[in-house]
Amino acid sequence: MIPLLPSIRSAEAVLAIVLVLTLCSMESVGMSSSDIGDPYGICVHIHTWEHPWAAKEVAIWKEMGIRKYRSGMPWQDVQTPDGVWVWENAFDKTSRLMAQHPEFKMTNVFGGVVPGGDPLSKKNLDGLLNYIKEELDRDAGETFGAFQVLNETNINGLSADEYAEIFHAVAKMLHQRFPDVPVVAAGTSGVPLDYIEQEFQAGLVEDMDVFAVHPYGWNIPPENWILSQARLVRNLMDKHGAEDKPLWFTEIGYSSEDLTDFPVRVYPRLMKELGLKPENTRVYVIFDTEYNLYSETHIFDVRKMIPGVSEIIPIDLRDLAHLMPGENDLLVIPESQCFPGVHVKDLRTFLARGGKVFSPQGFPLYFELNKEPDGLVMMTQVNGKWLSELHLGWEAPWTKDECQVTQNWEWANPDETTPLPEKYLAYMFFNGANLRGNDRFTPVLYGINGNYKGAVAGVYHFSSDLKGKFAVAGCSMRGCSEEYQAYLNTRTLILAIASQVEEIYIHHFRAVEGERFDVEHHFGINHSNLDPKPANCALRTLIQELPAHSTRPVISRVDDAFLADWTRPDGQKVTAVWRASIRTMPMTFASKGSVTARECTGIKIPVKQKGGMLSLCVGPGVTYIHHNGDLKVIK
User: How much is the pTM?
Assistant: First the structure.
C-alpha cells in the first residue's frame, strides 16, 4: 500500500477533498442523455473454433443479462484458394443454434484474409462481396444487430483510402439487403487519429452508420485514456459531420496473462549497474492525483520488485522540480510509459543534478499527458518526442526493419551466473542514438533473434549536460492478475458509458489458456472450461447495478478517487466509487437516508451509519453505493 503524500501541500489536499471536480458531463449522442440504451456486448468465436462451447456460452449470457455478441466467419475459413466453398459444420451448427435465440443480437464481422493467405485489398473486392453474400444466404436466421466490415484495417495493410472504397461497396450491398441493420466501420487497433481522419476524408462518414475503435489500454489506468480517447474520436467525428452517429468499442478488455520472472532476474542487475544496494536505497515514487499518475501499480510494487529498499517516499510531480537527489536515491517513474509534457523539464533537471531514474518497463515517455481546460487528462502517443531531450534511444520492429521480436535472452556480462528470464516476447530495445558528450549506454540484457541483437535492459550513464543515470527495461508486461482484470474491466465500462460510447464489446468471453505467456490467451472473463473468473462476476454485477436504460453516469473525482452517479430504471440512485491508484483507504460519506453497498464482484458490504455519516474502504475495485440521492463525500 502506498503511504499518504507528505504534508507539504496539506492545504491543497484539504481543498481537494472538499471539492468534487466534474471531469466529464458530455451530451449523449444518438439517444437521450438520460438513457444509456443497452451497451453490453461480448466478443466470441462461436462460428469457428469455439463452436463446441456455443450452447453453454449462450446459457451463461442469458443468466448474466448479456444480449449482444460479436462473432464472424473469416473468408479464408470457408473458401479454398481454388474457389471451393467449405462450409463446415461449425458455422451451420452455430447458425441454427442462434436462430433459436432471437433475443440475442449478433454483430457479424466480415473479413479475414483472401483464401490462400494474401491480405485483403480492393483488387479482391468482388470476391469479398461474393463471400459475404454466400454467408448471408447460408445463415439459418440469426438476429443481426449490426454488420461490421473488416477488422483493424490500420494494422492489416489497408490504407485509409482503400478501406473507405471497400467499405462503400460492402455497405451499399448490405444496406440494400438489410436496410434496418446498421453497418459499422472496422474497429481500428488503438486510436490512430491520423488514419481515422484519412478514412473520414475519403468518404467513410457518408456510408457508415456507426464508427468503432479498439482502444486497448493494457496497463495504463483507464482513467487516463478512456475519457480522453473517446473525446478525441468524438471531436474528429464532429469535425467531419458524424456528430449524430454512434461510437462503439467493438473490442476492449484486459488480459490476465501471467507475469514472468523478468523483474526478479533483471532488476537486481540494473540496480547493481546503477551503483545501488537496496538496503541503502531511498526510493521516490510518483503519486500524482492531478494527472492520475502513479509509480506503484497493480504490476509494480516497489517492495516486491526491489526487495529490501530502506524507504519509499511518494511525491507529486510538482515536487520533482525541487527534488535534490542523494547518492543513494532512486526515482521510479510509472511503468505505464505515460508522463506529462509540462514536467519533462523537471525530470531533465533531476538528471542534470545527478539523479538516478528507473523506468520499469516499456519505452519511457511514449505517451504524453496534458490537461484540458475542464481538467480532463488527455493522453497522446508521442513516440520518441522526448528521446533527444533525455539522451535516450530506442528501436522497435515498427521503426527499424532489422529489429526483430525475440524470446531469446543473453546477459551482456558473460560472467553473469543468474539464470536467464523465462521466455517472453520482447519487442522494445534500447540504443545510444542520442548520447552526448561522454555519455554511455551499458546493456544488461540482450534479446536475440537470428542476426538481430538488441538491448532489452540497460543503464544510461550521463556525463554531459546531464549527470545522472537512467535504467530502462523494455520487456512489456501487459497482463494483470485475475482480480485486477475484474477491477479494470468494470472501471473501463463505466467510464466508456459515461463518455457516450453506446455499445462496448468485452474481449473475450472464454479464455483459450493454451500458452502461459501469450497475452491473447488470457483475455477471457471465463476460464477455458467456462468456469468464471472474477471478471465474469464483476460484469454480472455491473449489469445489475448499471442496467440497460439507466441514466448516463456522471463522473467526478476527489483526490485519487473517482465517482460515477446514475439512476437505474427502477429509480434507485447509485454511486460507484473507486481509486485510480492501488491504495485502499477509508472515505467518509454523508446521507440522511438508508445506504447499502456492494463490492465489484457483487459481495454485500456491511454499512454502519451514525448521525447520517458512514465510512467505506475504497480501493481500486469499484464499490457500488445505493442511496436516496443525497449522498455526499465528506473526506
Answer: 0.91
